[in-house]
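Appendix B, record 7
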Amino acid sequence: MLLPKPLARAAKANTATRIRTAQRCFSGLDSFALLALPFFSLGGNIMNKGGIARRLVRLARMLVGWVPGYLATTNVLANMFFGAVSGSSVAAASVLAKVSRDRFMREMAAKYPEYRFDRHKGYGTKLHYALLREYGPCPIHRRTFLKGMAP
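Structure tokens (predicted):
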């Protein structure tokens, strides 16, 4: 069996060196960040399933919905609220990006029902590409997305 050099040296060393090497390897796992990340993710999922994320987005939209380009402003404000509640700006950004995108796709599904955005959420599925070939792009389609479409 091939081992990395530090572990190979430790395997040939005396017991004290082996113990020290094992302690160094496992001390890296005893980290707050490694423990906190799964809990922040769990907290974000609980807040999302419980509807807190939707309510925070609705509150932010109520406060800044009158501003032109309100989608970006709403997202920034909702991230501030969610980051304050969850304690993690990364968890806030990931959960709110999904919530915002899903809400936007539901709105676009009502505006452009023939594209069935409620089914594929704008991702490049077979259904989405088939509908694009049938109806052509609508105003919300990104031109970079259309480049990846096979003729």
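Remarks on this record: The CA atoms of residues 5 and 58 lie 55 Å apart. Residues 112-151 form one domain.
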